[in-house]
Specification:
- By secondary structure, the protein is an alpha+beta fold.
- The protein has 11 helices and 32 strands.
- Helix content is 23%, strand content 32%.
- The protein has an 8-stranded antiparallel sheet with strand order 9-8-14-5-6-13-10-11, with no helix packed on it. Strands 15, 16, 17, 18, 19, 31 and 32 form a 7-stranded antiparallel sheet that branches.
- Helix 1 crosses helix 2.
Length: 533
């Protein structure tokens, strides 16, 4: 898709996990690199150290790729040009201006470096059509759009070309519309030449990695592979007693499935698999946050859903059960080092590096199982009083790391349907904290609070105070009710236990038991205890 990359790093933070990921992909494709150190005018900038860290990262990735059998030009990595910039001020220079200082020139040195170091598109005039599909989009008028780069030949509007599929077959397709990009707009064009990046319409089932080729002389390009998903969750229709109460909400299985199918068009990291139930589907993605964003988008579009607790996607490698790993970089103030290290150790995290730049902040790098990060964000922000910064990137697969304790507390579960009363909540607040507001409607099996003990407790949160004619000696004594904790969608997914799920509607997010009936839950728990003996 591109002929080179501009690697931008912060003059204070330095390379981050996502920097490692995208840079590895660029080096793997033998693309030339230009390093831009941005925000050099920050008071806490450390330009020389960041350049050194970036060079070390380039050489480290180059060594890893060479060990995998990929030929890497090490001399070019040592000769990577560095541009020092302050994008906000519109200034840059090829010389180090000094920590906290502003460059003196405009952005021309950056543009000149790009023109000198990044080669133009190369092609063979005698080669037939070769165009690589690198992304997908959708238009309400044209349907699915395939974004592609033309490597050789010419692509014309209205032409019949060949589509080289993943299975090796060549299918005849018709280009009904050809769109070029001018500024931020897509405009119709009659033809596109080698090096152009265009969008084509008229091919319904085209996928990323496939090629458009000449029907007379098909020469497909290498397929593009997408990293496997690491986290899955079950998404289905809302099955709670309060389903369908929001006017205009989308509640049918057909509507949910159509929406998930539309998401697959542009989101290549997503997979939707059938389950035993016809009204629920297993959705797999790269991380818990990506799946939570999808659910939040559907909620805002008016869908009512039942969402299961995120689970890890495992695979067998050479007969060994393996799970996805994540490389996590954490920036925290020094005083929280012990708490964060203990938190990561409980989640099977292995510390790789620790750096103290003398500014009161410490950078830690861990390799941790992906399932260890489920529910991590809330605990991490609590332990660091909201000051910690954490980001992670895929680190491949490793053998199963063992059991990880996800949640040590239990749930307070409503034992009947009704309205939560302040009287009942005041009497029960010594037993735990609540996640529902007084006077809100609840149903049997809904999780209404958190029990400090590691067991579930059925409670009557709808109990009302009995009225009598007798004046009480303590009538004027008022008890204060501790405010309830309001959970967001992401926090609800983290909070839910293994036998719980999240009910999502346009107006509310509730945590509930998968099995609502208390007697049925008791029978299931008894069977599990007998099976584990």
């Amino acid at each position: 898709m591109v002929d080179g990359v501009v690697l931008m790093v912060d003059a204070s933070e330095g390379p981050l996990p996502q920097t490692r990921f995208v840079l590895r992909k660029a080096l793997q494709a033998h693309l030339p690199v230009i390093v831009v150190v941005n925000k050099v005018d920050r008071p806490d900038s450390r330009i020389e150290e960041v350049v050194s860290e970036t060079t070390d990262l380039l050489l480290s990735l180059g060594e890893d790729l060479m060990n995998e059998g990929i030929d890497i030009d090490v001399d070019s990595l040592m000769d990577v040009p560095v541009v020092y910039a302050s994008a906000k001020a519109g200034k840059c220079s090829l010389e180090n201006p000094g920590d906290g200082q502003l460059p003196t020139e405009n952005l021309e040195p950056l543009f000149e470096t790009i023109l000198n170091r990044i080669p133009g598109p190369s092609y063979d005039e005698d080669m037939p059509l070769q165009a690589h599909v690198t992304n997908l989009d959708a238009s309400p008028f044209l349907g699915r759009l395939a974004l592609l780069r033309i490597h050789n030949g010419t692509l014309k509007k209205g032409a019949d070309v060949g589509l080289a599929r993943h299975d090796g077959t060549i299918q005849r397709v018709h280009i009904s519309e050809l769109l070029a990009t001018e500024g931020l707009e897509r405009v119709s064009t009659d033809s596109a030449a080698p090096g152009d990046i265009v969008a084509v319409a008229g091919i319904e089932d085209i996928m990323i990695g496939e090629s458009l080729v000449d029907l007379e002389d098909p020469r497909p390009l290498p397929l593009i592979t997408v990293d496997d998903p690491a986290i899955s969750m079950t998404i289905g229709i809302n099955t709670s007693p309060m389903a369908g109460r929001v006017k205009g909400a989308k509640v049918t299985a057909r509507q949910v499935k159509d929406r998930l199918d539309r998401e697959l068009i542009g989101n290549v990291s997503l997979k939707v698999l059938p389950t035993e139930r016809p009204d629920a589907w297993e959705v797999q993605g790269r991380g818990e946050l990506a799946l939570a964003i999808l659910v939040e988008q559907m909620r805002r579009e008016g869908f009512e859903l039942t969402v299961g607790k995120p689970q890890v996607v495992t695979k067998e490698i050479d007969g060994v059960l393996s799970e996805p790993m994540e490389r996590m970089t954490i920036d925290i103030p020094e005083e929280y080092l012990g708490a964060v290290t203990q938190l990561m150790a409980a989640r099977k995290g292995r510390m790789e590096t620790m750096a103290n730049h003398g500014s009161g902040w410490i950078r830690l790098e861990f390799v941790v199982p992906a399932r260890g990060l489920i529910g991590f964000r809330t605990r991490f922000l609590t332990e660091t009083r909201g000051t910690g910064i954490a980001s992670s990137i895929s680190e491949g697969y490793a053998p199963w790391q063992g059991t990880i304790e996800q949640r040590l507390t239990g749930s307070l579960v409503a034992d009947r349907a009704g309205q939560a009363t302040p009287y009942a909540m005041t009497n029960l607040q010594e037993r735990g904290s609540f996640i529902v507001e007084p006077s809100s409607e609840v149903y049997e099996g809904q999780v209404v609070g958190e029990n400090p003990r590691g067991e579930d407790m059925d409670v009557n949160i709808c109990r009302e105070k009995k009225q009598t004619n007798t004046r009480s000696a303590t009538a004027d004594v008022y008890e204060s009710l501790t405010p309830s904790r309001k959970l967001t969608l992401e926090e609800s997914l983290e909070f839910a236990a293994n036998d719980e799920c999240v009910e999502v509607t346009p107006e509310a997010v509730r945590v509930r038991k998968v099995v609502l009936d208390a007697q049925e839950r008791f029978k299931i728990a008894a069977r599990e205890r007998r099976a584990n003996r």
